[in-house]
Amino acid sequence: xxxxxxxxxxxxxxxxxxxxxxxxxxxxxxxxxxxxxxxxxxxxxxxxxxxxxxxxxxxxxxxxxxxxxxxxxxxxxxxxxxxxxxxxxxxxxxxxxxxxxxxxxxxxxxxxxxxxx
Length: 117
Prior knowledge:
Blueprint lengths: L5 E2 L10 H4 L3 E9 L1 E11 L6 E6 L5 E3 L5 E7 L5 E7 L7 E7 L6 E4 L4
Antiparallel strand pairs: 1-2, 2-3, 3-4, 4-5, 6-7, 7-8, 8-9
């Protein structure tokens, strides 16, 4: 996988360890991240009421949740794999999108761009 690869797809169930964390998971977007065996994706319950960002090591199966926001979309990693940039809806609006970044190791997300008023 190339570190800038990006695809969108949806499954009613997936064969990743995320099933242990999310009941009836749906993966909404997926991107390679840094190394060929690492991916980031937005996932949540089938009704898409909450979508969080996850990092998955495809070799070891290690899964790490990177965000705890209401809805996240379209993750993309920096070429060095250190940051994940994504869109996030605010708590008050499912339409207005902020551009955020978070370390690929986890941590506090940083707002890069606010939506216009």
